[in-house]
Design goal:
Structural class: alpha+beta
Largest sheet: 8 strands, antiparallel
Bound molecules: magnesium ion
CATH class of the largest domain: Mainly Beta
Strand content: 25-35%
Order of helices and strands: HHEEEEEEEEEEEEEEEEE
Radius of gyration: 23 Å
CATH superfamily of the largest domain: Exo-inulinase, domain 1
CATH architecture of the largest domain: Sandwich
Helix content: 10-25%
Distance between the termini: 46 Å
Number of helices: 2
Number of strands: 17
Length: 275
């Protein structure tokens, strides 16, 4: 039962009260209580901690059509750091600093299952990040097994990549979710094989000298040009089946792309460092 429904239990009692004045007072009191209780409830609904991790009862975001895919890569502005322009993986390596083993063909880089995540050689803090991705059309798996990859800001905070076109999963793990925390505001996914875009604004967390959180990380995400994360406050790093607390870390860390065993392709990746 929702907390705001509790005052409803008193309604029959109030209705039977003989005095008009008392009845009126009772109804006014009830309406007030309902308003008071319902307001925080709707605010809580937006917060990850209101829901269990990967809660299947969390509402599925509305499916919308973001319109046709762009004709080609969206050009980078001239103050951007280009991380992948379709030619080589010079800017990337694996976690053990070995050379990137994902394959580059036709201007795109494809996850090579089993080779591990890629990370940028350079480290970043606050950024505007643009990237384009396509999930594999030949993938016949379902739910979290279909077109799964992801982009980790600072290697810790994942914006999920998944084939979420007519493929249902737990809402905090679908495409454009901040994994395990925030489902996207709407499902703006294109079909597998089509190019899709992410534009992400990431503000890193700040820690004090004792490792306490001064300001948590925040993220805004556009998926195929559609706002799907509106300056949300992260509860900590993203993880499977848990919501770990923040651990203090450096002001700049590499970006990562996830090898989740699916041949997701990427192209046109660039960042603008923010003050
Ligand atoms: Mg993932």
């Amino acid at each position: 039962m929702q907390p705001y429904s509790l005052p409803l239990l008193y309604l029959p009692l109030i209705a039977r009260t003989k005095s008009m004045a008392l009845r009126f007072l009772g109804f006014v009191l009830c309406a007030g209580l309902i308003t008071l209780a319902a307001a925080p409830a709707s605010a809580q609904h937006q917060h990850p901690m209101y829901w269990d991790v990967h809660d299947p009862d969390r509402p599925q975001p509305q499916v919308i059509d973001p319109g046709p895919a762009p004709n080609g890569p969206i050009p980078a502005p001239d103050d951007a750091t280009v991380l992948f322009d379709g030619t080589d993986l010079q800017a990337w390596e694996h976690a053990d600093t070995s050379a990137a083993l994902w394959t580059v063909t036709d201007g795109a880089v494809e996850v090579q299952p089993g080779t591990g995540n890629l990370r940028t050689k350079r480290s970043f803090g606050d950024v505007q990040l643009h990237l384009e991705f396509a999930t594999p059309p030949e993938d016949e798996d379902i739910a979290q097994g279909k077109g799964n990859s992801g982009v980790f800001l600072m290697g810790k905070y994942e914006v999920q990549i998944l084939d979420s076109y007519q493929n249902q999963t737990y809402p905090d793990g679908q495409c454009a979710a901040i994994y395990s925390q925030y489902p996207p505001l709407v499902n703006a996914s294109r079909p597998p094989g089509e190019w899709q875009t992410y534009d992400i604004v990431f503000r890193r967390p700040h820690f004090d000298e004792d490792g306490g959180v001064v300001t948590p990380a925040r993220m805004t995400v556009f998926h195929n040009g559609v706002l799907v994360q509106d300056n949300v406050e992260l509860t900590g790093p993203t993880a499977y089946m848990e919501r770990p607390d923040y651990q203090p870390h450096a002001a700049q860390l590499p970006l990562q792309l996830q090898d989740h065993g699916n041949r997701v392709r990427y192209r046109n990746i660039w960042v603008r460092e923010l003050e």
